AcrR family transcriptional regulator
Amino acid sequence: MTRIRLTAQERHAQLVAAAVTAFARGGYAGTTTDQVARIAGVSQPYVIRIFGTKQELFLATMWHASDRVQRIWREAAAVDPTLPGLGKAFKALLAERDLLVVLLHAFTTGSDPGLGDAVRQCYGDMFMLVRELTGATAEQARDFFASGMLITVLGAMRVLGPDAVPPQPWMTDLLGTLPYDQE
């Protein structure tokens, strides 16, 4: 069996992809660097050598997820620079459930002294980008984020997305209130 040698950038991306899977499953507190290493097929000391700490790995994973969301919004704004345009584009991220779950986990760590500043910066960057791309007021962006968080939670619970569970009556009622078509 021939071993393929990855560049440092490719190895970093491989570890972040493994971390997305691991942190989506267990959150920050419930995930170890050993779990990430096993998913990536490398040793735990290698993960530490690349990232230094679990905290730095988690932050790299959070920024990766945030960058993906922001990239989707920028692409959408090039075609339709409105809140509904960005909202429709966000729907595509339901297929990347683990990314959204990682962001949910990240936002819950906002009070952690070692993570909070970065988590708040991440959320703030996303908020300001939406305002910049759409010209939305603070209130309009707040409402957009409120709906987005609901959609993210529903995606995490598999109420929305390609792997959605069979709908229950409450789900149908709630989904009917969302600001864009779920079909």
Q: What stands out?
A: The CA atoms of residues 55 and 115 lie 7 Å apart. Residues 8-175 form a domain with the Tetracycline Repressor; domain 2 fold (CATH 1.10.357.10).
